[in-house]
Design a protein that fits this description.
Elements (H helix, E strand, L loop, with lengths): L1 H15 L11 H8 L35 H5 L6 H9 L1 H4 L13 H14 L8
Helix pairs in contact: 2-6, 4-6
């Protein structure tokens, strides 16, 4: 029960306490370069060891039916947007204890903004995400 309360608090923090996200000022071209770091586990179009990113914005966490998410991710109740991604990508293991995403995170706020700007553009592109 304590674990579920901690996850609910994490979701609230990601949703409410994410602060000012710089994604509006992000450079999607530089973000595409940063996304190269993600390709070991993620793809825009296909699930790998991490879920695909097409359709990410506005999608509830852990909602792809063909991907096996961690219990932590399933329990969050959050929806992916600029603020939740900014908070999560800074330090996934701290933002969501129990996540399977064992990546140290993108510490630089401008790099996160650039990555988020790229993801927002690429994951809504009908040529990429059919």
């Amino acid at each position: 029960m304590k674990h579920l309360a901690a996850l609910a608090a994490t979701a609230a923090t990601l949703t409410v306490g994410a602060g000012i996200c710089q994604a509006a000022n992000g450079d999607p071209v530089h973000g595409a370069q940063i996304y190269q770091r993600c390709l070991a586990c993620h793809s825009l179009e296909h699930n790998r060891s991490g879920p695909r990113h097409c359709g990410l914005f506005g999608r509830p966490a852990a909602s792809l039916p063909d991907f096996n998410y961690s219990r932590a991710m399933k329990a969050t109740g959050l929806t992916w947007d600029e603020a939740t991604l900014d908070q999560f990508l800074e330090n996934p293991l701290k933002a969501m204890p129990g996540t399977k995403m064992a990546y140290a995170g993108v510490k630089n706020p401008q790099e996160r903004a650039d990555l988020i700007a790229y993801l927002k553009k690429a994951t809504l592109d009908p040529e990429i995400c059919k």
